[in-house]
Amino acid sequence: MSGSTRDTFGGAPVAQPALSGSYGAPPPGYRLPAGTRLGAVRLQVSHLERSLAWYQEILGMELLDASGDVRSLGVRGANEPLVVLEYRPGTRPVHPGSRLGLYHVAILLPDRPALGRFVQHLAQRGVRAGASDHLVSEALYLHDPDGLGIEVYRDRPRSAWQRIGAELMMATDPFDAAGVVEAAADEPWQGLPSGTVIGHVHLHVGNLARAAVFYSDALGFDRMVWRYPGALFLGAGGYHHHLGVNSWAQGAPAPHADDARLLEWRLVVDEPARALESVRAAGFEMNGALALDPWGTAVRLSATSNG
Question: Which positions ≥6 away from 41 have C-beta within 8 Å?
Fold first, then answer.
């Protein structure tokens, strides 16, 4: 993200509490149900063992399953993974922002103390990260060994969210590092805690208006934030965003087959056939349970998420 509260909303905004049902712009037809959530993301990597070590040692994920050139990782003891790493010979790292597709995968921690423990963990390992306060959340930003973006964040309670008219307030403000670390209460980082999930996926797209047609009008997300510079944030069930799309890499090509990249992300939804039919009826490309956005990014619609 870029920008600030003042830049985003212009002057001194008059904010109101974001009570349930008071914000967001629903799609004209099919609407994703309130219980919609994200499942595992599948990433293509250039060096399986290097990536495996990074996701375990830096992010604190546990290896849940290994099969051939595929590794599934997540929270210790979980039934479903958060990230699936897939090695394909000839894959090469990418420079951030050089391709459309993945901007970052966002890992949602259950609370602020967990984020504070993660901040301390990164400092102890000498890992540098970007950091921002987005009003609805507090977030850290890293890149994996292949240049793929990773966000680790915690949400503020929905009772603290605010809106301007029907638009939820989000921004990129300074991160309160001292307050976040204080919340950790000197407890050590012991890997991703129970309750950690994939909170959202953020994509580079070639055109925001076209992305809105695919992801809102066809797939059924509500528009949550639409005046953020160069970006659109979409969600279901009142969540601030399950998906972000931006035009910050406009002019970049779609990823090549041998680039490190997002292979697919998973949307777990009641009656996925209804969502798939809505996308199909809008004339977008389909491949079974996969819906392909105009730049080839694949989202898998499923009723369950098991990697």
Answer: 82, 83, 84, 105, 198, 201, 262, 264, 265, 266
